């Protein structure tokens, strides 16, 4: 059977279980059914052999057991599993929440945006209709008022006309689709900023809720609700813990009360507490984000007022970026509202998963069993085991594979990943699934790169004597109560068990996979010295050929001749003497100088007589006179 066929088989089993539950009036998800199938197979009491192929009877038994567990209306264990499945399917990180919200919003706006970008308006009426659609798109994307409110539409239209007059529609129509979408987004931000500024100045703001004021009231209220729920849940957990600890330690019997039910209720409350702590951290993060947004929004609004200062005209390069920043900050307020709403819904949805043990193990039922017991809180347990005498003594640990770590000797001690989500592994085994918080302050044991903390030093000593026994004991406890796998984060211990859909043999629900690892070998080129004779020849015919060649060479003579033309092939060289540079020099230098002739012709002009009398005057100077 191929892998696709194997997946089809397991899906049919899951579908059959879900259908059987639906026929009996209980609707269950396939995710819950798949988890329950794995839990039933893991439970050793059900005697499913993972190394044996399931027969038809085994499949029917598996279906029957799963249906019985899923229809058990008085099982806190089933409620815990449902709670885990619900939380995993509905909770995600803050960034993923907001990203999904924006994706859904953009998806809903796509028809409106597509109608604008694909428009081919030509007439005046068509252009006016396009402009109205742009106003509606701006309102829907900004979330500031309803596009069916006339006052809101008028205010948004006035703000849009100051930025994007209707005469600019021609230019808008000539843009590409991507540029149109980009301009619509920019117009939305600018119009949002203008409306927020007008609201601050008391000149508008129709349909705009005061989100900072709403959040300033909603965040503390949600925080108080979560903290109250945590207090109520931990109060029940402390009672269940004290009761189980007393019964197991003193070997008492509870008449009229099922101890296993109390243990399942304790696991349910601890899981509920863990989820509530996650929600509380997110709500606290919301409060911090809202506080930061309020300060930034006030500062930006004040800067914008200083820029405008009742001016009739302000350069767009100065105010548009500030309007866009205001819009982004307001979007942050809207995101916090969405996130707070989601967290509140999850908080309300978790409460029904704790209803069974609250109804069965009421205060009237528990009071006779807890009278006279000391009910200690987690903080009291930590305080009782935080003295210097309660610290783990390294001399008492004989196991060389275990390393003892303390806060003062270990860097980033508070960030160590403590196993079992901080619960004591020794208590889980000795008290059979009893969840007692550990105290890392007394010391942490490091074993095989895992870190273990305990409720007291005696538990640490016993764990160090046989760590594998206690680790396997926790795994066995998780098989009895599969909800512990997620609560204690035991996924790595159960990684050797894979679903049937990933197996190769048909009919096998789970199987141990083949362990794989990367390995390499290296061999020397010649790790043993060898004497290789290069002239050795094993072929007799080759030896005969070489012998004949040598015999023939003995009768051969080398002749050489030279022709008349062969002498030109010689390399001839010639050498000459290069000419020398010769210079001469006289004993002294001498020079001669001659007079420069100079004459003047007089009488050519300026005479009063009609007859010209020309005289040549010699003006040459002697050499001695120069």
TrEMBL record:
<comment type="similarity">
    <text>Belongs to the CFAP206 family.</text>
</comment>
<dbReference type="GO" id="GO:0036064">
    <property type="term" value="C:ciliary basal body"/>
</dbReference>
<keyword id="KW-0970">Cilium biogenesis/degradation</keyword>
<dbReference type="GO" id="GO:0005930">
    <property type="term" value="C:axoneme"/>
</dbReference>
<keyword id="KW-0969">Cilium</keyword>
<keyword id="KW-0206">Cytoskeleton</keyword>
<keyword id="KW-0966">Cell projection</keyword>
<keyword id="KW-0963">Cytoplasm</keyword>
<protein>
    <recommendedName>
        <fullName>Cilia- and flagella-associated protein 206</fullName>
    </recommendedName>
</protein>
<dbReference type="GO" id="GO:0030030">
    <property type="term" value="P:cell projection organization"/>
</dbReference>
<dbReference type="Pfam" id="PF12018">
    <property type="entry name" value="FAP206"/>
</dbReference>
<dbReference type="GO" id="GO:0003356">
    <property type="term" value="P:regulation of cilium beat frequency"/>
</dbReference>
<comment type="function">
    <text>Essential for sperm motility and is involved in the regulation of the beating frequency of motile cilia on the epithelial cells of the respiratory tract. Required for the establishment of radial spokes in sperm flagella.</text>
</comment>
<dbReference type="InterPro" id="IPR021897">
    <property type="entry name" value="FAP206"/>
</dbReference>
């Amino acid at each position: 059977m191929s892998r696709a066929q194997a997946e089809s088989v397991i899906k049919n089993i899951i579908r059959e279980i879900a259908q059987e539950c639906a026929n009996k009036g209980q609707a269950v998800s396939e995710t819950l059914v798949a988890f329950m199938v794995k839990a039933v197979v893991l439970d050793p009491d059900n005697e499913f052999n993972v190394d044996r192929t399931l027969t038809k009877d085994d499949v029917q038994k598996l279906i029957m057991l799963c249906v019985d567990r899923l229809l058990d209306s008085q099982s806190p264990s089933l409620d815990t599993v449902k709670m885990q499945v619900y939380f995993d399917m509905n909770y995600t990180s803050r960034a993923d929440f907001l990203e999904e919200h924006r994706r859904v919003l953009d998806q809903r706006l796509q028809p409106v945006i597509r109608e604008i970008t694909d428009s081919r308006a030509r007439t005046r009426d068509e252009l006016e209709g396009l402009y109205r659609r742009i106003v509606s798109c701006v309102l829907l994307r900004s979330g500031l008022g309803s596009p069916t409110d006339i006052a809101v539409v008028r205010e948004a239209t006035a703000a849009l006309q100051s930025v994007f007059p209707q005469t600019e529609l021609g230019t808008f129509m000539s843009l590409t689709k991507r540029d149109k979408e980009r301009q619509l987004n920019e117009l939305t931000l600018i119009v949002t900023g203008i409306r927020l500024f007008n609201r601050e100045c008391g000149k508008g703001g129709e349909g705009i809720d005061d989100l900072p004021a709403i959040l300033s009231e909603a965040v503390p209220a949600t925080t108080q609700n979560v903290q109250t729920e945590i207090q109520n849940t931990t109060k029940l957990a402390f009672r269940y813990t004290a009761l189980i600890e007393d019964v197991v330690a003193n070997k008492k019997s509870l008449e009229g009360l099922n101890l296993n039910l109390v243990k399942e209720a304790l696991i349910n409350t601890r899981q509920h507490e863990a989820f509530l702590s996650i929600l509380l951290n997110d709500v606290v993060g919301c409060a911090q984000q809202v506080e930061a947004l309020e300060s930034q929004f006030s500062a930006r609004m004040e800067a914008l007022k200083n820029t405008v200062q009742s001016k009739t005209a302000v350069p767009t390069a100065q105010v548009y970026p500030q309007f866009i920043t205001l819009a982004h900050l307001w979007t942050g307020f809207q995101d916090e509202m969405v996130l707070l709403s989601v967290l509140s819904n999850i908080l309300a949805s978790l409460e029904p998963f704790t209803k069974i043990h609250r109804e069965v193990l009421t205060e009237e039922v528990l009071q006779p069993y807890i009278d006279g017991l000391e009910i200690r809180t987690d903080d009291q347990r930590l305080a009782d085991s935080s003295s210097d005498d309660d610290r783990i003594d390294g001399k008492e640990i004989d196991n060389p594979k275990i390393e003892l770590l303390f806060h003062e000797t270990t860097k980033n001690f508070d960030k160590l990943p403590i196993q079992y989500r901080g619960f004591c592994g020794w208590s889980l085994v000795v008290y059979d699934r009893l969840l007692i918080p550990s105290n890392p302050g007394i010391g942490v044991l490091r074993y095989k790169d895992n870190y273990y903390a305990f409720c007291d030093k005696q538990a640490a000593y016993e764990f160090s004597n046989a760590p594998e026994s206690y680790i396997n004991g926790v795994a066995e406890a998780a098989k009895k109560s599969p909800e512990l796998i997620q609560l204690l984060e035991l996924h790595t211990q159960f990684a050797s068990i894979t679903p049937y859909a990933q197996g190769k043999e048909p009919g096998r629900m789970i199987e141990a996979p083949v362990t794989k690892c990367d390995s390499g070998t290296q061999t020397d080129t010649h790790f043993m010295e060898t004497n290789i004779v290069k002239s050795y020849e094993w072929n007799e015919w080759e030896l005969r050929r070489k012998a004949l060649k040598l015999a023939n060479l003995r009768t051969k003579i080398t002749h050489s001749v030279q022709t008349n033309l062969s002498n030109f092939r010689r390399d001839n060289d010639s050498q000459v003497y290069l000419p020398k540079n010769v210079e001469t020099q006289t004993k002294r230098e001498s020079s001669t100088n001659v007079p420069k002739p100079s004459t003047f012709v007089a009488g050519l002009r300026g005479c009063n007589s009609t007859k010209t009398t020309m005289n040549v005057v010699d003006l040459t100077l002697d050499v001695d006179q120069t």
